[in-house]
Amino acid sequence: NAGVTQTPKFQVLKTGQSMTLQCAQDMNHEYMSWYRQDPGMGLRLIHYSVGAGITDQGEVPNGYNVSRSTTEDFPLRLLSAAPSQTSVYFCASSDPGDVQYFGPGTRLTVT
Amino acid sequence: SQQGEEDPQALSIQEGENATMNCSYKTSINNLQWYRQNSGRGLVHLILIRSNEREKHSGRLRVTLDTSKKSSSLLITASRAADTASYFCATEGGADGLTFGKGTHLIIQP
Fold first, then answer.
1. Exposed/middle/buried for residue B87 (C-beta within 10 Å: 0-12, 13-18, 19+)
2. For FRET with A69, which of A13, B19, B57, B83 sits at 20 to 30 Å CA-CA?
3. Is the CB of B41 inside 8 Å of chain A's CB atoms?
4. Which residues are B92's β-sheet partners?
């Protein structure tokens, strides 16, 4: 099992550009989520999904969109990148109420 | 807002000593999880303790949970240089994901 994979590992964007961060898991987990981590901080929840076709907002959803067309994939879209979105982004998956498995992260810089 | 608050924010001890980190939270939970993060890396799950459990062990790790005080502690015994990392507690209260604290940065001095 590859677990949770994320691409790309690093990305630099200019203000106003859009992009999609990819996340995939091969553990057949129903629950998937996106977090961002800023320097010296814990992780904050952006969006989550409890199953294919179902998504909901977390603590910091503004500026981000998600979709969940399959159990395996949960892409995160930045609509119009802003410097405030410079962060490390982590995707996670789990069975409900169980351990969350995290991907290696995507380090995003917006200039 | 972040529910979990770890204490201390930073901890430096000698190799071989025990390290204790505490976590407090505000609302009722289903479970509490501890994660480790090495510098620049992803999160590694350490222990999950459910709200009806009081203590769990895993190797050199011991986690306690006191739901009446809304607090948890992580004890690492016989610390090693490889334990140097940031440690986060995260609470789960429902289907809306984990709420993380800001973490404790642990440094093990050789």
1. buried
2. A13
3. yes
4. B31, B98
Find the angle CA(B40)-CA(B97)-CA(B45) to the nearest 5 degrees.
45
Do strands B98-100 and B71-76 pair parallel, antiparallel, or not at all (unpaired)?
unpaired
Asked if B97's CB is within 8 angstroms of A33's CB, the reply is yes
User: Which string of DSSP letters, residue by residue, matches chain B?
Assistant: ----EEE-SEEEEETTS-EEEEEE-SS--SEEEEEEE-TTS-EEEEEEEETT--EEEETTEEEEEETTTTEEEEEE-S--GGG-EEEEEEEE-SSS-EEE---EEEEEE-
Strand partners, B106: B11, B85
Residue with tokens 């994660």: B35
3 state DSSP class of B51:
coil
Does residue B1 register a pLDDT over 50? Answer: no
User: What residues contact B11, with CB distance under 8 A and at least 6 apart?
Assistant: B19, B21, B104, B105, B106, B107
Per-residue pLDDT of chain A (111 residues; tens, 9 = 90+): 789 999 999 999 999 999 999 999 999 999 999 999 998 778 999 999 999 999 999 999 999 999 999 999 999 999 999 999 999 999 999 998 889 999 999 999 999
